[in-house]
């Protein structure tokens, strides 16, 4: 039977690339967007039924509940929470407003855990819960600074994930993966980034398929460990 995945935030960029890569490897994929998603619609049309759409805005608890309701009895071998934002372009601690910082922390750190908490009962034993973090979320690896607000949001995601794994997920036999996709040419990564979406997601899918043992790992797209 085909393996099943849900990718949260698959309208474009890495999430869309993941949906396509998994589908081309024989997975049955549910791909979410929160609004108009023409690139995802084209991928669904070309997928021969192996990618199906769903809707969620992770910032809204009502929207998360509606997604859960719409999924019926679906269970997944992989729940991948990919959605994320960069935050204010200035990236400056001195300039950021409480509202901007609150929104960034909510979308990148709090909302992913709320989605995971809502969907955790749908993850098959032996399956995987993945979060799209970043190497910039590594506290131990932060020797150069830069992108400080975004770094803080991904460090917060990593911290909240560790707490979620240690408490809510502690008896659940699944693999939890905190992943760094590399620096990738998307709207967020920009045109000068070092990797194409296809290169990054090919690595991420291999990492997911190779790391199914229960536990929690922080890995990049090549499978290398990242310090917390
Ligand atoms: N590109 C890189 O170099 C890089 C490096 C490290 C980590 N990452 C991480 O990888 C993930 C994907 O980034 P990307 O480069 O593919 O960026 P992207 O092209 O900007 O895509 C971001 C995705 O997140 C979705 N999203 C944002 N806020 C959402 C919300 N509230 N609810 C639902 N979906 C939401 C977007 O949906 P809409 O189309 O509706 O906006 C879009 O599908 C992010 O978590 C990012 O932090 C990227």
Automatic annotation (TrEMBL):
Transmembrane segments: none annotated. Gene3D superfamilies: NAD(P)-binding Rossmann-like Domain. It comes from Sandarakinorhabdus glacialis. This is Short-chain dehydrogenase. NCBIfam families: PRK08177.1 (NF006035). It comes from the Bacteria. Coiled coil: none annotated. InterPro entries: NAD(P)-bd_dom_sf (IPR036291), SDR_enzymes (IPR052184), SDR_fam (IPR002347). One of its GO terms (molecular function) is oxidoreductase activity, acting on the CH-OH group of donors, NAD or NADP as acceptor.
């Amino acid at each position: 039977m085909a393996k099943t995945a849900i990718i949260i935030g698959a309208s474009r960029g890495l999430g869309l690339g993941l949906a396509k890569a998994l589908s081309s490897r024989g997975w049955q994929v549910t791909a979410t967007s929160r609004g108009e998603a023409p690139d995802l619609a084209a991928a669904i049309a070309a997928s021969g039924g192996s990618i199906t759409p769903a809707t969620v805005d992770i910032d809204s608890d009502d929207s998360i509940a509606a997604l859960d309701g719409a999924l019926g009895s679906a269970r997944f071998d992989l729940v991948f929470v990919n959605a994320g934002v960069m935050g204010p372009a200035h990236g400056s601690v001195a300039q950021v407003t409480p509202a901007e910082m609150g929104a960034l922390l909510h979308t990148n750190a709090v909302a992913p855990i709320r989605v995971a908490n809502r969907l955790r009962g749908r993850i098959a034993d032996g399956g995987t819960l993945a979060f799209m973090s970043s190497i910039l979320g590594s506290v131990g690896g932060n020797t150069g600074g830069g992108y400080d607000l975004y770094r803080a949001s991904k460090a917060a995601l990593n911290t909240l994930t560790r707490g979620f794994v240690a408490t809510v997920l502690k008896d659940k036999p699944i693999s939890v993966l905190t992943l760094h996709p590399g620096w990738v040419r998307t709207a967020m990564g920009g045109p000068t980034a070092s990797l194409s979406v296809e290169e990054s997601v090919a690595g991420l899918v291999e990492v997911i398929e190779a790391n199914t043992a229960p536990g929690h790992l922080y890995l990049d797209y090549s499978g290398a460990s990242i310090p917390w």
